[in-house]
Amino acid sequence: MPPLVPGNGVGGVVSAVGDGVDAGLVGRRVVTATGGSGGYAERAVAAADSLFEVPEGLALADAVALLADGRTALLQLRAARVGAGDRVLVLAAAGGVGSLLVQLAAAAGATVVGAAGGARKAAVAAELGAKYAVDYREAGWPELVRSGTGGLDVVFDGVGGDLARAAFELLAPGGRMVSYGLAGGTWAAIPPEAAAARGVELVAPGRPDPALLRAATAEALAEGAAGRLRPLIGQRFPLERAAEAHAAIESRATTGKTLLVVRE
Ligand SMILES: NC(=O)c1ccc[n+]([C@@H]2O[C@H](COP(=O)([O-])OP(=O)(O)OC[C@H]3O[C@@H](n4cnc5c(N)ncnc54)[C@H](OP(=O)(O)O)[C@@H]3O)[C@@H](O)[C@H]2O)c1
Questions:
Q1: 156 lies in a domain?
Q2: Is the minimum distance from the CB of 29 to ligand 1 under 6 angstroms?
Q3: Distance CA 140, CA 158 (A)
Q4: What's the gap in Å between 161 CA and the centre of ligand 1?
Q5: Where are the alpha helices (DSSP H) in 158-262?
Q6: Does 255 sit in the ligand 1 pocket, CB within 6 Å?
Q7: Which of 38, 172, 174, 219 is the 20 to 30 A CA-CA neighbour of 154?
C-alpha cells in the first residue's frame, strides 16, 4: 500500500550500527535484503544478522546481482537433481535467474538449451554456455529443441504460461519440470495427471527454511568470488531513473540483472 519505498536487495558499505551491534561492521562491504521495501534509497536500514559480507574479490555490484538470483538458481538446480549428461532447457535464459541456471547446469555437465525472446538474448545464452540457443519468438522453436536434443530431462521455468507448456511437452519420461516463476504473468499450471501420464515430475520448490536460504546465499557469493558463477548485469540506471528501469524490465528489453545505482 502506498506510500511505499520499493526495493529489497541492496548492497553498500555499513555507515553506522545500532546499540549493541558489533561496531566492527562499520566500513564493511555488505549485501542484504531489507524485508521487501526500503531498498530504493540512498541509505538503507537492515538487521545486523541479515547482512552478508561481500567476499574479497567480488565486486559489490556483482554481489548485489547474485544476492537473490544466485541462491534461487542454486536451489532450483538441486531441486532438479541436474547431473552430467542431462538435457536441460532454461526458459528466459538471458534473464537474472536464467543466466545463472545456464552456467550452473553447464558446469554440472548438462547439455544446455537456452531459450529466450529474440536473437540477441539467445546469443547471450550461448555465450553463457548453452550448447543450443533458441529464440522462442520464432514459431517452430520446440521442434528445433526436439531435433537437437531428442527430448529433455529438465525444464527450468521462470516464465510460465504457453511457453512453459510448450517446454513441458518436450520432456522425456523421467523428466523434471521445475516451475519457480511466472514472469509472463501466469504459472505453467501443468495438470498433475498430465505429468504423471508422461512420467514427468513436477517440481515446485516451496519456500526453504531461513538457514537453507542463508547457506545458499553465502554459497552463491563464494562461487561468484571464485569466478565460477558470473552474474550478468545487463543494465544499470541511476536511482532517480528507477521508473525507466521498471519500464525496460516490463518491456522485456533487459538482459540479466538490472541495477539501480546510488553511487559507485
Ligand atoms: N530473482 C529471484 O531470486 C527469484 C526468486 C524466486 C522466484 N523468482 C521469479 O522468477 C521469475 C524470473 O525472475 P528473474 O529475476 O530471473 O526475472 P528477469 O531477469 O526479469 O527475467 C524474466 C524474463 O522473463 C521473460 N518474460 C517472458 N514473458 C515476460 C513478460 N510478459 N514480461 C516480462 N518478462 C517476460 C523475459 O525474457 P525473454 O524476453 O527472453 O522472454 C524476461 O527477461 C519471476 O517470476 C520471479 O518472480 C525470482
A1: yes
A2: no
A3: 21
A4: 12
A5: 161-168, 192-198, 210-225, 242-250
A6: no
A7: 219
Residue 1 lies in a domain: no
CATH of the domain at 239: 3.90.180.10
Continuous segment of H or E residues that includes residue 76: helix 69-79
Of 105, 157, 152, 149, which Cα lies nearest the Cα of 130? 105
Smallest CA separation from ligand 1 atom 5, residue: 72
* Residue 2 domain-assigned (yes or no): no
Which residue's C-alpha cell is 553511487? 263
Query: How many domains does one find in the chain?
Result: 2
| Residue 170 falls inside a structural domain | yes
Give the pLDDT of the chain (264 residues) as one tens digit per residue: 788 999 999 999 999 999 999 999 999 999 999 999 999 999 999 999 999 999 999 999 999 999 999 999 999 999 999 999 999 999 999 999 999 999 999 999 999 999 999 999 999 999 999 999 999 999 999 999 999 999 999 999 999 999 999 999 999 999 999 999 999 999 999 999 999 999 999 998 788 899 999 999 999 999 999 999 999 999 999 999 999 999 999 999 999 999 999 975
Structural domain for 89, as ranges: 69-203
Instruction: Say yes or no: CB of residue 181 within 6 Å of ligand 1.
Output: yes
Residues 108 and 29 occupy one common structural domain = no
